[in-house]
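1st attempt posting a full record on here, be nice pls
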Amino acid sequence: MKPVITDIPGVGPAAAAALGEHHIKTLAKLASASVEAVSAVPGFSESRAARVIAAAGELLAASGTSQTAKDKGGKSVKEDKPAGKGKKDKKDKKKKDKDKKKGKGKGKGKDKKKGKQKE
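the predicted structure (as tokens):
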């Protein structure tokens, strides 16, 4: 079974909920968090923050779970997507697909103006 934040000694449901309110919901997120970020969570001093961050890293290493794979609740992280793949690129692809269906794409086919085969 995949380890969770509450598997860390001293982190129960209340502490896990407090971490979750600060967007630290998985072991990978906790292991990669800074001491400053975790100590900003109510109930976490700098020493406790350092302790739970280290424990999270150890649990991940022991379980063989990658910190860079799927992270934060099983959802793919947006930063994993290649740069430049945004809405504009999707619109361009849709336009190209639409043009192909209408016969405006490149390739062989009849030249509509002359009625002859393109080469």
